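Table S2 (continued). Query chain:
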Amino acid sequence: MTATLNSVAAAAGVSTSTASRALSGHPSVLPATRARVEAAASALSYQPNRMASALRTRRTGLLGLVVNNLRTATFHTIAETLQDWAAQHGYQVLVATTNGSPEREAAFLETVRAHHFDGVVVAGSGANGDLVNHLVEDGRAVVTMNREVPGSLAASVRADYEQAARLATDHLIGLGHTRIATIGGPPDVTSGRLHHAGFRTAMTEAGLPVVDQLVHRGPFTPEFGQAAAATLLGLPQPPTALLLSNHEASFGALPALGSGGRRVPEELSVVCTEDEPFYTWWRPPLTVVDNRATRQAERAAAMLLDQLSAGSSGQPGRRELVEPVLVERGTTAPPR
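Corresponding output:
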């Protein structure tokens, strides 16, 4: 026979309302009474009715997380960091991977709304501003990451993409490189647009030209990275340095560089604008601009907690940029 709240209350010798308050952690319940109720619930294998509890408290204990994928270190780190934080604060996180699809993201956000999730972190497509705003207006805790969401009312935190590209480009220029290539993301995506802006600004301020044939901007795929790298290596006058700001493209570009006969860093310096564990296994280990994914996730968690604790006074529209850090390893050196 399935245990009910009434049977737990009877076994503990308290009223049903007291048993309910004890199991929900209400501060008005004496510790000894709470312990007695919890012991009775454990002995009877009582499972609380979460849906009924949600109707009473307007809290489900559920949080959502939207990420484009779990292949890259940034999204993986964000997911693990938020899961750890949620466990410490009594929440469960449901993760949706969308491959960057606005439609799949929208379907999950509709689920978040329909099932009364307490909050959601959207590290996704940059679309669905209306759905994000509906959740904010409903009083849910919402934080966006990864890309700008036009018109969004939600709090947001992301890496400073423009500064990341500037750090990388300034580092290469400081080593004496003038013929610098870049493999970046598409111009209609936040990171692609801002990485390219940072690259151009650094080059312009140094009085260096941005050569069209050295600039490749395209989709977040290894295939694009492989093709772009092969084109650059095949130029009559190839670059002496390469900025890889399209992270997924680096998975194709790096093997292409390895098989292309150019020695790194003796003949070609390389910098990536997002770290991966395997970058340290590369020979030589890759110089990167670390986007500090753990810090981004920690700030997103703090924003969630602020909204969950303070409700509408939790400053849902706050914006934060996380400053990147240059990590010099073995793939950059002065040109020959």
